[in-house]
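Example record

One chain of 171 residues, shown exactly as stored in the release files.
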Amino acid sequence: MLMMFWQVQRLTREINDLERRAMQVRTRLTHYQTYAGRLGGNQSLFAGNIAGLSAELVPRAAMFAQFSEQASSMNAMQQLQMMKASGMVPWLNNPMMQYNYEISAFAQFKQQSMQALKQREIDAMNEIEKEIQLELNAIEVQIKEKTAMKESCEKRMQQRIEDFVPKFGLG
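Predicted structure tokens for this chain:
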């Protein structure tokens, strides 16, 4: 009987530990979903919206913000140069109009490149979220198994207690 009591106590501790781990994993999943949500918006990542992320994701977000800004600018510049070289940029007689046209094309190319980079990062976040979800599912299965084992032990313990109670000829 004492062994069953200790087993119930051990299972209770294990369930509590698993529930704590599950809560941590859910929190981590929420952090990744928040980051992916910020990437999905039209605005760029900057210090103001990176600061609200979890400590785990701040370095990744900061590096991505810096990388995506540089890479999209370089890509836009290359596309603009290719358009100029192929004669696709019209030559305007007004230098200010020419400048505005090229800046507009550059901004459009940069935005397209930034969206592609963001989509790749979102895809990477989705893969990580799937892994985290699998981890959470495994923990929840363990919780269910341990809870079932604990309930079984408690029922056996209750049955043993009832078996040891004197009946005095009443039952």
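Notes: The CA atoms of residues 38 and 45 lie 8 Å apart.
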